[in-house]
Amino acid sequence: MNTTKIFLLRHGQTQWNVEGRLQGQKNSPLTEVGVQQSIQARKLLEQFEIHKAYVSPLQRAVDTSDIVLEGRDVEVVTSEALMEISLGSWEGKLRGEAEVLTPEQYQLFLNSSEYFALQGAETFQQLQARLVAKLDDIFAKEACTNIMVVSHWIAIKTILAHYLDIPLSRLSEIADPENATLIQIEKDDNGSVVVKL
């Protein structure tokens, strides 16, 4: 049985992660911890051949990818479809500030993501649709290879919800992916998908 493996990776820790700021599609640099996390991910991936990488163009994801793939001759494709959820006016704000500004939307964001509809931001449904379309495209294009995908916190949670067949209404049940940890999503010739957390 031929299998296509996606090694899904959240970027390393950033300065805004430490400060508790909502990043969305804005950039924040990796911390020294984030660099070390990325080096650890590189060591974990050493046992696998990586044939290609698809990476969010946000700088924290690109920097993580560069560290993980250091010393390897791997083609890297950046894709806007892998970016984090757009959070509109919340981007760059502390979580507490977002909560004070729009308390109802903040609670929906945390606990009832299927109803989240902040003006100027993406919905979770829109986010999931673009990410799943991209991963389905990667599975189709890169059959029988090992692919690294570098993305983001909420983006990865919506990917997992899709492949684990968990509705967005239960998204909070999925553990937040740690910075620079690897998740394997495997698809075989029959289209069966296995997620290894």
From TrEMBL:
GO terms for molecular function: phosphatase activity. Transmembrane segments: none annotated. One of its GO terms (cellular component) is cytoplasm. Keywords: Glycolysis, Isomerase. SMART domains: PGAM. PROSITE patterns: PG_MUTASE. The keyword Isomerase applies. The active site is at H11, E84. Substrate binds at R10, H11, G12, Q13, T14, Q15, W16, N17, R60. Signal peptide: none annotated. This is Putative phosphoglycerate mutase. It comes from Vibrio ezurae NBRC 102218. The lineage of its organism: Bacteria, Pseudomonadati, Pseudomonadota, Gammaproteobacteria, Vibrionales.
